[in-house]
Amino acid sequence: GYVLLDCDSLDGRPCIVGLLGPGDYFGPGLNGGPATHRAVAKAGCHLRRESRQAFQARLRSEPELALTLTSQLAAREARLQQSLFLQQAADLPQRLAWTLAELFTECGGPCRHGHQRDIKLSQQELAAMVGGSRQSVSQILNDRRRAGIIDYTRHYLCLENRHKLQHLLAS
Fold this sequence. Notes:
Layout: E1 2-8, E2 14-20, E3 38-42, H1 52-61, H2 63-89, H3 92-106, E4 109-110, E5 117-120, H4 123-130, H5 134-146, E6 150-152, E7 156-159, H6 162-170
Helix pairs in contact: 1-2, 3-4, 3-6, 4-5
């Protein structure tokens, strides 16, 4: 499964700021401050809740955990920097193509509908991730569906052709 991290934008709309997969650590205990985001478990997650003190004790006694956490935080920072760059430099279709490629790679699983991969995510959630309206994202997804790149159901996005998606990223 995976977890969506979201918060409300200044105008009250949900804004998805992160998507975490199996083995990822998150929570306000990592920095000692109050929670700034909501965590929404999606698609069969198993979560472990741990106090800040207990987690810090584990970090001190398990050096491999500290290395894993450092690696995860560095990867998360790189994704945030890429996302910030795309928000400033790319149009919505480019942001959507990049996000879909990342989602299918990081969180996608074997498709239940016969395609290459799928991910349980609504168009509204996808729109919140890329900074677009659901209507605009839906129109682009329809274009990508007609081109044989993706397919979708009410709750799933399905990858039909990874090579075509990669070609979108290169253009």
